[in-house]
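Sat 14:20. Reprocessing the chain from the morning session after the first attempt stalled halfway. Input below, unchanged.
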Amino acid sequence: MASQIRPLFKPLGLVPAAAIVLSCGIFASSARGQAIAEAAGATSVSAAAASSIKPPQTPVPAFPGVTGTPSQHIIAPSGPPPQEVNVSNFQSHAGKDAGKVLLRATPAEAQIWVNGKIVGKTPMLLVLAPGKYQIEMRSARGETGTGSVDLLPHETREVLIKLHQLYPGRVTANQ
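Finished this time. Tokens:
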């Protein structure tokens, strides 16, 4: 069908794209016009050039300890969650003079960081070596609070941190 169109527009000096536009206007049937446009697109030089262009391949980094072909998917960690690892590290370094800290927050259910390492959610009893610790808590609603505790050998302490909003929950405008 495209071969029928080209001789018709060749004397006019039109390029195939212009022939497509004119042919779509000449033919009353939109299905026939669509077929002509597809045929012309399949035989045009620009369609062939565009189809030969391949997107560049991005290299996938090799991760240490991973064997085989690299994958473009995210590799899920194959161990316990970081909070369990951090609690285990704190308890293993606690020693024979360990103290205990009961960590609580108001409102409850806040995530706890001890010396910048996540250890879990409140309320929590944590066994620590004697020393000074920085504690940060964050709730799911964006409230935060910080504190510190100086733990002595064989001491049990309770730390209650009141969480505050970083930004106001309600704004009023005075006129």
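The helical segments are 2-9, 16-26, 30-43, 45-52, 82-92.
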